[in-house]
Amino acid sequence: MKGFNTRSIHGGEEEKVKDAVTMPIFQTSNFLADDAKYASERSETFYTRVGNPTIGVLERKLASLFAGTGGVFFSSGMGAITTIFHSFLKHGDNIVVSKNVYGGTQNLLRELPDEGVEVRRFDQSDYGSITGLLDGRTKIVYVESMVNPNLILTDIEAVKAKISSSDALLVVDNTFLSPYNFRPLEFGADIDVQSLTKYINGHSDVVAGFAGFKDPEVESKVRRKMVQFGTNGAPFDAFLVNRGVKTLGPRMEIHNRNALAVANYLKDKPEVLRVSYPGLGHVPACYENCPGFGGVVYFEMRDRETAKRFMRSCSIFQEATSLAGVESLVTVPSLTSHASLKESELAEVGISPGGVRLSAGIEDIQDLIEDIKWAIKECVR
Ligand SMILES: Cc1ncc(COP(=O)(O)O)c(C=O)c1O
Questions:
Q1: How many CB atoms lie within 10 A of CB 19?
Q2: What domains appear along the chain, each with residue ranges and CATH number?
Q3: 104, 178, 218, 342: which has the fewest C-beta neighbours closer than 10 Å?
C-alpha cells in the first residue's frame, strides 16, 4: 500500500475526468438515468442524495486513510453520528457510552430515551464497569479516542476486550486525532466517525462528516439510512474537503509540534493550574506509535473570569468555538462546546469553569508562544 501522503493526494482519483489532474466538482443534483441505475442502491450518477462522483472520490480516499474498506460522507459530524445511531438503535435497545463525549453528542444522547433507547454510561477510569452494562439489546458502544476538550485518551483495545463477547458495534469518534495520528479501525473499532470540519478539511470553511467502516454490510446499513434521512454532504463541500485533505499529513506534523511546544510552555507557568496534553505523559499502548496528538491543548486557570480575560487578551489565537484549522483558536469550553452541561455535570466529566481550550494552528511557534505569554501577563493583572 502506498504511503499516507501519497494516498491523501492521489487516493480515489485514479480515474481521470476529461483529463483533469484533480477531481472537478459535479455540481448537479441529477444525472441521466437508465435501467441499471434504477436497480442500483448506490449509483454515483443518478441523484446526488444517493451518490455523486465528487463525493465518491472523497469517500474512497478517506476510507483508505481510515484503514477501512469503505465510508460515507455526511453533511456534518453530527449528521454522521445521528445517522449511525439511528441505523442500529431501535425501541428497546441500549447504547453504552463513555461519560466524556462532545457536548453536541451529549445533546443527541439526551433525545434517545424519548425514542425508547436506553443510554448507559461508564467512566473512562473504570473500563471494568463496561461488562456489567452490556446485554443482548446493546447495539452500540460509543467512545471518543481523545476526548473533547480535556484530551483524555480512551484505551480502545481495553474497551474492545471488554465487549468481545457482545454483538455491539464499537463506534469511535476520532475527530481529535485525525487518521494521520491514529486509526481506530486498526485497533478493533467497527466504525470510525469524524467531523471533517476539523483537521481533515483543515481550513475552517466547511462543515462535513465522515464514517469509515471495515464491514461492507455495516456500511450499507448506514448508507441506506443516510439516503433516507438526507444527511448526505454536498458536492462542493466534498470538493473542498478533497482539496484540504491533500495536505493533512504536513499540517498534522506542524499541529503536533506546535501544540507540544505550547503544552511544554504552559506547564511551567504558575498562573496555570493544570495542563492536559497526551504528548506530555504516559499513553495507553494503542497510542504508543502515534506521530503526535494534534493541535489542541487544554489547561485550567483559577476561574472562568481569568480564563475569559486570557482568551480576550490573545491576538493570534482568535476567540472561536471550533478547532483544528490552520489558524489558531481559543475557547472556554464551559461557555461553548459544553455550555449545555450543568456545573455538576461539568465537574463529573473533568471540565473546570476556568478551563481553556487552545487549538494551535500552523503559524510560527515563536509567535504563538509570544501571544500566550502576553495573554497570561494581561489576565492576572
Ligand atoms: C469530537 C467531536 N465530534 C463531533 C463533532 C460534531 O461535528 P460537526 O460540527 O461537524 O457536526 C464535534 C464538533 O465540534 C466534535 O468536537
A1: 5
A2: 4-246 (3.40.640.10), 248-379 (3.90.1150.10)
A3: 342
